[in-house]
Please model this.
Amino acid sequence: MAYSPAPPPHIPPPARNGMATAALVLGILGFFTCGFTSLFAVVLGHIAAGQIRRTGQFGRGSALAGALLGWLLILVFPVAFVAFVFVDPGAVNRFFAALM
Model:
């Protein structure tokens, strides 16, 4: 009686990089925090991309998206703030008056 050969061992896929996920989450949160978390998204995104390149983990897209969102918000929010304040100085007073 012949036995079938043993199945090949299960090799788990590489793990997802946690810093890449954190970079993406912080990049998305930058829209709600007026860009305050964007700097952290950029730093974590670049660190995660280096780790992924060295270790072969998953998450390259998340790291790249987090870093790009961070850079985008770092550039957009100061320009929007300057435009909001200096183009129409009364807009700030009307904005806060509308809130109260």
About this structure: The chain has a mean pLDDT of 90. The two ends are 86 Å apart (CA to CA). The helical segments are 18-29, 38-55, 60-87, 90-99. The chain has four helices and no strands.
